[in-house]
Amino acid sequence: MTPAEPWTGRDDGPGTGPRWHQIVTIGEDARSGAVLIGFRSDEGVRRNQGRPGAVDGPAALRMALAPLAVPPDLTVTDLGDVMVDSDLEAGQQHLGQHAGPVLAAGRPVVVLGGGHEVARASYYALRAGERLADNRLGILNLDAHFDLRSADQATSGTPFLQIAEDEQRAGRRLDYLVLGIARSANTSDLFETADRIGAEYRFDLDCQEADATAVRGQVASFLDRVDVVHLTIDLDCLPASVAPGVSAPAGLGIPLPVVLAVVSQVARSGRLALLDIAELNPRFDQDARTARTGARIIHEVLTAWDRTEGER
Ligand SMILES: N=CN[C@@H](CCC(=O)O)C(=O)O
Ligand SMILES: [Mn+2]
Ligand SMILES: [Mn+2]
After folding, report:
1. CB atoms within 10 A of CB 160
2. pTM
3. Which residues of this UniProt protein bind Mn(2+) 2 (predicted)?
4. Is the CB of 147 under 6 A from ligand 1?
5. Which of 28, 130, 232, 310 has the greatest count of CB atoms below 10 A from its CB?
């Protein structure tokens, strides 16, 4: 683990209400409230023939979060970063070991990626935190891609097939819902794999603003049939104009208001255990647009999560 750097940002003086950089505890755990942990990894994207740069995602997300205004009752601890080298599998296990105890304590956890291989690291954390025993895991992925590739090693394109197989070995069945699938960005074998593992998906064309009520209904059915939710946001689920800083920008994408409505719905459900944000690549970002969008998503989730925990 690498400790987090001190957070800095604008200070409007006494009585003005806090910003994120003023409330985040670093170095020492606040022992309650939400927890951030970074997953500095490029290895999954590199193995998946993508554009490297996701290793700097956690720092860019922190920088974008720092100036945002927070509600007075939000408590956040930044545990720092897990550094990932060419041994991606060890890095994924590492994150699981570090985040497991806070998940075991029932605290909201936000993992800052890293390529989408971060999702399997998050899964290890849920397992280490004993959130899966006797519970039905639901993964809600907002993504233009299935990430159900079959490969001889982990990449940013394999995590959800690996997790489905992990859950099968444990005698459980993963409930996997993907919103924002681009038909043109997924080959036919991926659709076949999705069908084989019983995944549910919704195309990007059916996740536009006019579809918001139907999207909400599909998410509500998903929430009803699972016990523990892992919410994973691949920033390439958004239009390239909103999220240019990713390895594989989307041609269409889900509009940001629809994404924010979905993540708030999940955060309010009382079933959310962990959020991860994947694929932010600051090298290709423009004016920190993608980082700011990722930060807004985290802000929205933690605001709803902290205030309504346990509510359905
Ligand atoms: N994280 C995964 N990403 C996509 C990458 C697609 C691309 O580079 O075009 C995938 O493997 O399908
Ligand atoms: Mn993607
Ligand atoms: Mn992905």
Report:
1. 28
2. 0.97
3. 143, 145, 234, 236
4. yes
5. 232
